[in-house]
Design brief:
The chain has 185 residues and is α+β, with helices and mostly antiparallel strands. The protein has one domain: Glutaredoxin (3-Layer(aba) Sandwich), CATH 3.40.30.10. The strands form 3 sheets. The chain has a 5-stranded mixed sheet with strand order 6-5-4-8-9, covered by helices on one side. The radius of gyration is 15 Å and the shape is globular.
Length: 185
């Protein structure tokens, strides 16, 4: 496991969200158009086994619960190489979702093209877009890397979500997320 930081080489603030068409654990396929009309779209590159993702899943589910009616949609994307990391397989994604009571869309990108388009490098790696699908925040969830949100003293991601829901923009400084590197083929 290599500790990796978010990269800012591909998408900059106000960049348009790259499109995708990926299968979900709910049996459907999703693309950006499926989230049209949402005031805020949070795409988080994540996986099942990462010790930096697992403590944050409850916070992500809480954010979805707290802000869905105001227009937030969270989408998790797992793009890890499942041959080398079978714990991240599509079937195990379903088990993970049940275990952690995921209430948001969880997609699988076997091709690994979507994280490359976004410039995602680690798990978790959150990208927050406004209703025009323009990037407003790409950074950490909070300052408690590898720990649950309860152990944090900051709340950057939630602050950014609130700002985007209220006015379509975020002014929260983006400090890089840290986590396991995406497991490339």
């Amino acid at each position: 496991m290599a500790l990796t930081y978010s990269s800012y080489k591909a998408l900059q603030k106000e960049s348009i969200a790259p499109d995708f068409f990926l299968p979900s654990i709910d049996g459907k396929n999703y693309s950006l158009k499926d989230f049209k009309g949402k005031k805020a779209l949070l795409i988080v590159f994540m996986c099942n086994h990462c010790p930096y993702v697992r403590p944050k899943v409850a916070k992500l589910a809480e954010l979805q619960s707290n802000y869905a009616k105001k227009g937030l949609q969270i989408v998790g994307i797992n793009a890890n190489d499942v041959k080398k990391f079978p714990e991240d397989s599509f079937e195990n994604m379903k088990k993970f979702a049940k275990e952690f009571k995921l209430n948001f869309v969880y997609l699988f990108d076997e091709s690994q093209q979507v994280p490359k388009k976004f410039g995602a490098t680690c798990t978790p790696d959150p990208f927050l877009f406004n209703e025009k699908m323009l990037l407003q925040y790409h950074g950490r969830i909070d300052d408690a890397h590898g720990e649950s949100h309860e152990g944090s003293s900051t709340n950057e991601l939630e602050e950014a979500i609130i700002q985007v829901l209220e006015n379509g923009k975020s002014f929260v400084p983006a400090l890089p997320s840290m986590g396991c590197n995406i497991k490339w083929k």
